[in-house]
Request: fold
Amino acid sequence: MSAETFLFPCLKDNFGVLLHDSATGATAAIDAPETQPVEDALKQTGWRLTDILVTHHHADHTQGIPALKQRYGCRVVGPRAEAGRIPTLDETVAEGDTVKVGNLTAKVIETPGHTAGHISYWLEPDKLAFVGDTLFSIGCGRVIEGDAQMMWNSLLKLRALPDETRVFCGHEYTQANIRFALTVEPDNKALAKRAAEADRQLAAHQATIPVTIGAEKAENPFLRADIVEVAKAVGLAGEPAWKVFAEIRERKNKF
Ligand SMILES: [Zn+2]
Reply:
C-alpha cells in the first residue's frame, strides 16, 4: 500500500494529519489547524508538502494555510460551497469529485451539517477516510450551520463506507464522547471495551484515532439512531431516525 499517514496534535485538541504517497513523494496535509506542528511533522517524516485538503472553513482547520502555502507553494483544495470562507484556495471540489495526491485518489463526499459545505475525503483503495468535524470517534460534530436531518444524512453516507475503512477526524474528543455514549447505551459491551482502550491510549499519551467504520457502527450512538433499542433509550421508539439523532445530539449539547 503506497498511502502512509502521520498523525499529530495541534492547538488544544485538534488533530493534524499528513497523507503521503510513497510512490511519488506527494504529501497532503488534511486541514491546517496551525503552521508549526505541520512543519514539525514534515521535518519528522522527511516528507515535502504538496497539497492541503480542507474539510471546512472553521479557523481551527484553516488558519495554518496561508503560511504553509507561502512556504511550500502547495496546492490548496477545499469545498466549493465554502470557497469564499477559506483562504488561498486553488481548487474547489464537490460531491463525487476526485482529488489526486500523487498517485493516490481521494473521492469527495459532501457531509454538511457541522458547516453548510463540509466535505470528507475517502480513499477507497487505501481504506482511509478524512472526515473533519462530521464524525468523531464515538461522537459527531455540533450541528452549527445545518439541521439535524442534514447531519444524520451526512453520517449515513460515512456509515455506508466499508467497515474496514480507517477514519481520521478533526478532534481528540473520544473520552468525553464515550462518557456521554454510555448514558445512551449503558449496556453496550463493545462501547465499554472501547472506554477501557481509550483510557489506556490516553494514559500512554497516544491518540485514540484512527478508528474503523465497523467499530463506530457498533459503538457510536450517533450512528445508531435507527436502532430500536437506541430510539427506546431516548424515549423516541417508532420515531424517524433523524429525530432520534436530533435528540441524542441535543442531550450531548447539554451533557
Ligand atoms: Zn469545525
